[in-house]
Amino acid sequence: MNNNFHFQQNVSLAPFSTFHIGGTARQFISVQNPDELLEIIQWANENKIEYKVFAGGSNVVFPDKGLDCLVIQILGGYIKRQENKFIVDAGMLLMDVVSESIDYGLAGLENLSGIPGTIGGAVVGNAGAYGHSISEVVEKVEIWDGKEKRLLTNSECNFSYRESIFKEKPFLVLKVTCKLEKVDSNRLKTISADIIRMREKKYRPGIKCPGSFFKNILTSEIDKDALGRIDTNKIVFGKMPAGFLLEEVGAKGMQVGGIKIADFHGNLFINTGGGTAADVKKLAGILKQKVKEKFGIVLEEEIRYF
């Protein structure tokens, strides 16, 4: 194995999460590209060492007790442009990929402006905003299936609302190919700036949170009885915002331990300082029960308990 790799021992995971929650990892290493990631994984497999992989840490809740294994962070990499396509290493920050696509006048990612985390993480969770998802521009994904590298087409990724095959199977995303459309760069810059302004009203700079906590609910999946209890004027892009349902049950301002629901948005869990994963799970459980009792709808987490 590459002798330049340096493993750290007993590393606090909280600073690697936008939620600032988590205990210590027994062993930790950060890698910058898919080749390094596979080299570490193959070494771990040969030595029968358990490992877990994460990327930007924007959508995860690390456990309070920490992780008694090797934790690998993939963060960094390169973008290769081929006319209207980007081939991107999974560890690239999504915001950097969006910015570069806008500079080249390539449309398709601008609605994702301001979303934290990496492009690999965005593909896993089929990230999106304002009626658009990254799956709309993904042409193919290079993965490691545990034995070899493979290419998956868009249809093979089983994309749906905030879901993909990568949440079902232990595949690792290595590279993402995005097919974009050539347009005027200035128009994309305007769209991006408007979206970032809207996002910053909700996700204020410096806030310790994992983004939207619960998924919005597709109206096609809400039964007639539940739909009858909801103000259908609140439906946006064919989805009922989880934030509306949460606000209807009094979520805003609720707090358990160091975790508080924002006073200005019902689907925003904020670590006010010293919050724990246990606090998060307790508060989430209370809110899910309240929404179920009032609307007959079971909320599903968008975040991932790591």
What is the element layout, followed by pairings?
Layout: E1 8-12, E2 24-31, H1 34-46, E3 51-54, E4 60-61, E5 67-74, E6 79-82, E7 85-89, H2 94-103, E8 106-107, H3 119-124, E9 128-129, E10 132-133, E11 138-144, E12 149-153, E13 172-179, E14 181-182, H4 185-202, E15 217-218, H5 224-227, E16 239-240, H6 242-248, E17 255-256, E18 259-261, E19 269-271, H7 277-295, E20 304-305
Parallel strand pairs: 2-5, 3-5, 4-20
Antiparallel strand pairs: 1-2, 6-7, 7-13, 8-14, 9-10, 11-12, 11-13, 15-16, 17-18, 18-19
Q: SS-based structural class?
A: alpha+beta
- Beta-strand fraction estimate: 25-35%
Radius of gyration: 20 Å
Helix content: 25-40%
Report low-confidence residues grouped into runs of 5 or more: none
Count the E strands: 20
Largest sheet composition: 5 strands, antiparallel
Shape from CA axes? globular
Number of domains: 3
What is the architecture of the largest domain at the second tier of CATH? Answer: 2-Layer Sandwich
Strand order of the largest sheet: 6-7-13-11-12
CATH class of the largest domain: Alpha Beta
How are helices and strands ordered from N to C? EEHEEEEEHEHEEEEEEHEHEHEEEHE
What is the name of the CATH topology of the largest domain?
A: Uridine Diphospho-n-acetylenolpyruvylglucosamine Reductase, domain 3
Contiguous helical run count: 7
Textual characterization of the structure:
By secondary structure, the protein is an alpha+beta fold. The protein has 3 domains: 8-74, Uridine Diphospho-n-acetylenolpyruvylglucosamine Reductase, domain 2; 79-200, Uridine Diphospho-n-acetylenolpyruvylglucosamine Reductase, domain 3, CATH 3.30.465.10; 205-305, Uridine Diphospho-n-acetylenolpyruvylglucosamine Reductase, domain 1. The chain contains 7 helices and 20 strands. The strands form 7 sheets. The chain has a 5-stranded antiparallel β-sheet with strand order 6-7-13-11-12. Strands 1-2-5-3 form a 4-stranded mixed β-sheet, with helices on one face. A hairpin with a 2-residue loop joins β9 (128-129) and β10. The longest helix has 19 residues, at 277-295. The two termini are 27 Å apart. The mean pLDDT is 94.
